[in-house]
Amino acid sequence: MTVSIMHRVTGSGMATVGALLLVWFLAALASGDAAYATFRDVFTLSDGRLNIIGWVLGVGLTFSLFQHMMSGIRHLVLDTGAAFELKLNQNLARLTFVGSTVLTLAFWLYVGTK
Questions:
Q1: Is 68 marked as binding a ligand?
Q2: What are the TM regions of this chain, as residue ranges (predicted)?
Q3: Average pLDDT score over residue span 105-109
Q4: How many CB atoms are closer than 10 A to CB 104?
Q5: Is the dihedral of CA 26, 109, 56, 103 positive or negative?
Q6: Residue among 62, 71, 79 at smallest CA distance from 96
Q7: Is the pLDDT confidence value at 8 over 90?
Q8: Total domain count for the chain?
């Protein structure tokens, strides 16, 4: 049940937050240098690193993407008629959280090294 709820929450969150950020980004680009600088300054420090807002949104959207993807893969397996045994199903549900957390950490560690 938790995985199903998280699948819906992450999908809705990515769609809402992602769409708002995309529209703001495109409007800032179209409005000129000053508007884009304002957009950029909300998420970054003066040296180009992410500030706390940038980190929260970046990590949150990344975790949402990986959680939604892992849950979708789990549903794809269930749609084939496999993994309906209770123990296996519960383990796959737990693995969606473990997998999404590991993928998020790996992604941000990779980004941090660049």
A1: yes
A2: 50-70, 91-111
A3: 97
A4: 20
A5: positive
A6: 71
A7: yes
A8: 1
Q: Looking at this protein, which amino acid is placed at residue 31?
A: S
CATH number reported for the structural domain that contains residue 67 in this entry: 1.20.1300.10
Other beta carbons within 10 Å of 57: 16
Determine the structural domain holding residue 61 and report its residue range: 2-113
Q: What are phi and psi of 101, to 5 degrees?
A: -70, -45
Phi, psi of 83 (to 5 degrees): 65, 35
Contact 68, 106 (CB under 8 A): no
3-class secondary structure per residue, 3-38: HHHHHHHHHHHHHHHHHHHHHHHHHHHHHCHHHHHH
Q: Which residue has the tokens 């794809």?
A: 76
Q: What is the pTM of this model?
A: 0.90
CA gyration radius for the chain? 18
